[in-house]
């Protein structure tokens, strides 16, 4: 129950692009208790942005009635982030994860969202059900500044 070094937050918001920066800043603020480096904060903000944007534009196709849920779990020096939607789901997850694959080339998407998440985090998992939604889970160990400079 009250294990040392364990903390958790969860947040739901409307699938509107205005909320992308809200999600990014909230996660950065929560994780700041681990004393991350600027680079680590930038990586976490980037992956949250990519995953939340995917839920909004792909999962819900821009429908602001959709709800995005994000959560962050801190266990010791490791943070686990999750981003979930109840949108359209992904037909072929392996294909979707390929670098440069995008189902919306007309929106000038880069097709690099999943590749960025995979590269910036230590662990990365996608589970998705067609018509049921998508859930992304990613984990990263934070090498705190305190540890670096002591
Ligand atoms: N939450 C989601 N719901 C439905 N489809 C998704 C979701 N996230 C990603 N996808 C699918 O995976 C593809 C690849 O995603 P990504 O690598 O972020 O590239 P991009 O967003 O630039 O298309 C998307 O084009 C889309 O088809
Ligand atoms: Mg994307």
From TrEMBL:
Keywords noted in UniProt? ATP-binding, Kinase, Nucleotide-binding, Serine/threonine-protein kinase, Sporulation, Transferase
Give the matching PANTHER family: ANTI-SIGMA-F FACTOR RSBW, ANTI-SIGMA-F FACTOR RSBW-RELATED
Q: What is its EC number?
A: 2.7.11.1
- What function does this protein fulfil? Binds to sigma F and blocks its ability to form an RNA polymerase holoenzyme (E-sigma F). Phosphorylates SpoIIAA on a serine residue. This phosphorylation may enable SpoIIAA to act as an anti-anti-sigma factor that counteracts SpoIIAB and thus releases sigma F from inhibition.
The UniProt entry, under NCBIfam families, shows: spIIAB
**Ranges for the Histidine kinase/HSP90-like ATPase domain?**
39-144
Q: What is this protein called?
A: Anti-sigma F factor
A Pfam family annotated for this UniProt entry? HATPase_c_2
Family the entry assigns:
Belongs to the anti-sigma-factor family.
Broadest EC class assigned to this enzyme: transferase
Chemical reaction(s) catalysed: L-seryl-[protein] + ATP = O-phospho-L-seryl-[protein] + ADP + H(+); L-threonyl-[protein] + ATP = O-phospho-L-threonyl-[protein] + ADP + H(+)
A GO molecular function assigned to this protein is:
ATP binding
Write down the species.
Answer: Paenibacillus apis
Name one process (GO BP) from the record.
asexual sporulation
